[in-house]
Design a protein that fits this description.
The complex is a heterotrimer of chains A (about 350), B (about 250) and C (about 290). Chain A is mainly alpha-helical and about 350 residues long. Chain A has one domain (about 15-345): ABC transporter involved in vitamin B12 uptake, BtuC (Orthogonal Bundle), CATH 1.10.3470. Chain A has 14 helices and five strands. Chain A has helices at about 25-45, 45-70, 80-95, 100-125, 130-145, 170-195, 195-205, 210-215, 220-245, 250-255, 255-270, 275-290, 295-310, 315-325; strands at about 15-20, 160, 245-250, 335-340, 340-345. In chain A, α11 packs parallel to α14 (about 315-325). The longest helix of chain A has 28 residues, at about 170-195. Chain A is globular. In chain B, the strands form two sheets. A six-stranded mixed β-sheet of chain B has the order 6-7-8-3-9-10, sandwiched between helices. Chain B has a four-stranded antiparallel β-sheet with strand order 2-1-4-5, with helices on one face. Chain B has one domain (about 30-55, about 70-230): 3-Layer(aba) Sandwich (Rossmann fold). In chain B, a hairpin with a 2-residue loop joins β4 and β5. Chain C is globular and about 60 Å long. In chain C, a hairpin with a 7-residue loop joins β1 (about 130) and β2. Chain C is an all-alpha fold and about 290 residues long. Classes of the chains: A mainly alpha (about 350), B alpha/beta (about 250), C mainly alpha (about 290).
Chain lengths: ~350, ~250, ~290
């Protein structure tokens, strides 16, 4: 997809179709500054804040993947924690075999992608809510099976090997960098994906599956691809999670809490946008830090907020912002400018 | 001119962005049979669904017994006396023949029709009443659908494409019932692609072409050429339009 | 002989699962929605029975007489307000909203009552059981729950088959628009179906509390089993749900007999097997399949 305007309608400048409503220069400059700042963060901010940032990145990775599944491919999964856990345990497995934990990250992601394929063969027999609960069964099963494997720590868990040679600050810095790099790769990768042909196919499927099918889109293959990619992404999140919290146990890596967080964050931030999961994650962390002393009330508030958003502002906060101010940071749809003003083509569930 | 039961004025109905019915007006009087004829896509079924309450018009007035019913929900319209026999029968596939009729009778008003009367009207039904409806033939299913709507004792019966998917002889048998239904005090608005049947059974005819009225009149006053022209659009007799912008 | 006991325990457990699941099955059949908060309603009912009905001077063992109708009412109201609003948007929203509700409810319970296990006090009844042979034992409570499940399912089936409202519910499940055209107020019917679902699951929750300990997360765990029971038995069939529940119960008991760690896993594997080999379940219609 190119950034050119549609030539046929442009003679009188009456209707133009564009990717972005403002020059991409702003986004590029802003992003570059941010990237530089975040890369040097561990050396300039207090260690506690760096840890928070790390957890923030992990949440962004998971939320971006969940958003890809639900907001673009229309699959509501409440079992992505399966792949978070499998990614963490893949990392543990490779580390036990002698590999440097940081090097295992891409392999853990790959392993999850590979496992995801046969899982789709089962899951894709169901639709809607039944698909969702089935993803949960898969996650539960994965957790239970891993829990029976003694060498991986069984039900009680074990420490990740290979990190003991480094000093605590080195570990912290490398963990941070690894997490940051993975987050960057995942977000940029998703952006690139959604601007590609596959992204267009996904939008078509989401808007009208029958029409997309009859226009030649291979719906099943597109969905399968997205599911596998999302599994790999969550696997990568699990890998960096395992490195940053090196005591690996099934109840943590396969925690249902990840599912809740991914879902709430994406919903509040805005489904079907790249910025949404990021915005949602920011809000989540602000809320969590503020209400840290109150136990799990932050989750109650966040959940209630997510429900309210679903019912009354389904495009989420970023979606509302985008519709109001007609601008996006990371454009993946198209803007149609006609005589009556700008209108964005519908690419989000409303 | 009989007393007006249902009056529709300047109604426009959209299906998403598509304009299905454009500025149509008509009335149905007491004891009348009005046939809406037109080709596929003329907007007839959308019109009936709107009259039944399943769809909202974009603009216009629907008056029943003098009151505006545009905001009335479908089930309230049934209680008021408007019943639709929908396109494609839409029977309750997990239920028996009798159960389908019982559902129709649940909110029935007082009137000449009850389940026993339906069994008189269709004498094959009593012995098959415990059969599941998917075991019935197309014509039999159509009869059950009509029975289900009648048993509520409507004043206005809306019939959508009765002939769809049925053999000619079955269609004739079903249409033969129309006079008997009217005689029991029901006014009928019938939508049909089959022009001959529609015209044969109607007191008045209203032809739609691409959502607009193309011809109205009494069958005995209209020639078959007039009807053909109105149906196919070679010549719009009543409505003048500018060329429309393409969708 | 030991295997016979395993099967019997499985059947008893299956009765409970069926009771828990019939509301889920009904809501899916009629409203076409999965209520992900279904399991949590059961737990809330159990907490109400333990902590709130004593204020009414009712012994906990009889609390269900008050709690079940109460939850029926709550179900009707929640359906006509919250759930209907999300249905009006799309099924996607309904999943998200009910999931959100589930998380919110579980965490509120966690804050209010901590993660400690609770039970519904039924006095000495908990220990009483029947020993036809030295190996087979049937606890009175489990037997009562199985009996309750069968009675509830039978009553529900009678209601759906022979009453006017029951017929309307089936009509709405078959074809909502056609039911509207026959005079049914479908929102009210949805409310009735939800009321039945909430009432039955409340009963199941109290039964659970009588049989074993419960905690805020128990709802989620049982929802998983309920869902598995529905899929194994066949989506769209009430008696299928009973059979599915029993099949699941038996599978779990077999797993537990081999190794207590394998109990839940055995059930999950059965579910995945059914999904692979016969996705519509044992008695199911193909409504939830792609």
């Amino acid at each position: 997809m190119s950034d050119t305007q549609s030539p046929a309608l442009d003679q009188n400048g009456v209707i133009r179709v564009r990717r972005s409503t403002h020059s991409p220069i702003y986004t590029l400059v802003g992003a570059s500054i941010l990237i530089v700042l975040l890369s040097v963060a561990p050396w300039i901010v207090p260690a506690e804040f760096a840890t928070t940032l790390m957890n923030f990145f992990i949440l962004v990775i998971m939320a971006t993947m969940w958003n890809l599944l639900a907001g673009y491919a229309g699959m509501v999964s409440i079992g992505q924690q399966a792949f978070v856990g499998l990614g963490a345990y893949a990392t543990l497995y490779f580390a036990l075999k002698g590999m440097n934990p940081f090097v295992t990250i891409p392999f853990a992601a790959l392993a999850c992608g590979v496992i995801a394929y046969p899982v789709t063969l089962l899951l894709f027999r169901l639709r809607g809510g039944y698909f969702s609960i089935a993803t949960w069964v898969v996650a539960d099963t994965a957790m239970l099976i891993i829990g029976t494997i003694a060498v991986l720590g069984g039900g009680t868990g074990r420490l990740m090997p290979g990190l003991q040679n480094l000093s605590p600050s080195e570990t912290a810095h490398f963990s941070y960098l690894a997490t940051w790099v993975v987050a960057l790769v995942v977000v940029v990768g998703t952006y690139v994906l959604l601007r590609s042909r596959l992204g267009l196919v996904l939008s078509a499927i989401r808007d009208n599956e029958v029409a997309a099918r009859s226009a030649g889109a291979n719906v099943r293959a597109a969905r399968r691809t997205v599911f596998i990619l999302a599994a790999a992404g969550c696997g990568a999140a699990g890998a960096v999670l395992a490195i940053s919290q090196p005591f690996i146990q099934p109840s943590n890596e396969f925690n249902m809490q990840w599912a809740a967080e991914m879902l709430f964050v994406s919903m509040i931030g805005g489904l079907g946008t790249i910025e949404g999961p990021i915005i949602g994650s920011i809000i989540f962390f602000v809320l969590q830090q503020t209400l840290q002393q109150e136990g799990v009330w932050y989750l109650v508030i966040f959940g209630t907020f997510a429900v309210a958003v679903a019912l009354w502002q389904p495009r989420g906060l970023w979606g509302a912002f985008r519709d109001r101010f007609h601008s996006e940071l990371l454009p993946v749809g198209h803007w149609v400018e006609g005589p009556k003003g700008k209108k964005r083509t519908r690419t989000g569930k409303s | 001119m009989s007393e007006t039961l249902l009056e529709v004025r300047d109604i426009t109905i959209h299906h998403g962005q598509l304009c299905a019915i454009n500025d149509v007006s008509f009335r149905l009087g007491q004891g009348e049979v009005l046939a809406m004829i037109g080709a596929n896509g003329a907007g007839k079924s959308t019109l009936l669904r709107t009259l039944a309450g399943l769809h909202r018009p974009t603009s216009g007035v629907i008056e029943y017994e003098g009151a505006d019913i545009v905001k009335m929900s479908p089930n309230k319209r049934v209680e008021a006396g408007i019943s639709l026999v929908p396109e494609g029968r839409r029977l309750f596939s997990s239920m028996t023949l009798e159960e389908n009729l019982k559902v129709g009778a649940f909110r029935a008003k007082k009137g000449p029709f009850n389940i026993d009367r339906i069994y008189e009207l269709f004498d094959w039904m009593p012995e098959r009443r415990k059969q599941n409806v998917w075991q019935l033939s197309g014509g039999e299913q159509q009869a059950v659908a009509i029975g289900r709507a009648l048993v509520a004792n409507p004043q206005v019966l809306l019939l959508d494409e009765l002939s769809l998917g049925l053999a000619p002889i079955i269609i004739e048998r079903i249409y033969a019932l129309v006079p008997e239904i009217v005689a029991s005090g029901v006014s009928i608005l019938i939508v049909e692609q089959d022009v001959a049947q529609g015209v044969a059974v109607a007191n008045r005819v209203h032809c739609l072409l691409e959502g607009k009225t193309s011809l109205t009149g009494v069958p005995s006053d209209l020639t078959s050429e007039q009807i053909d022209r109105a149906y196919f659009g070679a010549d719009l007799t009543t409505v003048t339009t500018e060329s429309e912008s393409a969708e | 002989m030991i295997w016979l006991n395993v099967v019997i325990q499985g059947v008893l457990l299956g009765g409970f699962y069926a009771l828990f699941a019939c509301g889920l099955s009904l809501m899916f059949g009629v409203l076409k929605v999965i209520n992900l908060a279904h399991g949590d309603m059961a737990v809330v009912a159990a907490y109400v029975a333990v902590f709130l009905t004593p204020h009414l001077h009712i012994p906990e063992v009889w609390s269900f007489l008050v709690v079940v109708p109460l939850f029926g009412l709550i179900g009707y109201v929640v359906q006509r307000t919250l759930i209907q609003k999300s249905i009006d948007r799309d099924p996607f929203t309904t999943l998200l909203v009910t999931f959100g509700l589930s998380v919110v409810i579980e965490n509120i319970l966690l804050e209010a009552y901590t993660a400690n296990g609770q039970t519904v006090n039924i006095g000495a009844l908990i220990t009483k059981s029947w020993h036809p042979t030295s190996i087979i034992y049937i606890s009175y409570v489990s037997l009562a729950v199985l009996a309750a499940a069968v009675i509830v399912l039978a009553l529900l089936q009678l209601f759906l088959s022979y009453t006017g409202t029951g017929r309307l519910i089936r009509a709405v499940a078959d074809d909502r628009e056609a039911a509207q055209l026959s005079g049914a107020n479908y929102r009210h019917i949805f409310g009735v179906a939800a009321a039945i679902a909430f009432a039955t699951v409340a009963l199941a929750g109290i039964a659970f509390g009588m049989m074993t300990q419960f905690a805020p997360t128990s709802g989620g765990v049982n929802l998983l089993f309920a869902f598995e029971a529905v899929v194994i038995g066949g989506i769209g069939s009430l008696w299928g749900t009973l059979v599915g529940g029993v099949a699941l119960g038996v599978a779990q008991q077999f797993g537990a007999h081999l190794n207590p760690q394998y109990q839940v896993l055995a059930g999950n594997l059965l579910f995945l097997l059914v999904l692979a080999v016969r996705p519509q379940g044992l008695f199911g219609k193909k409504t939830a399949l792609s």
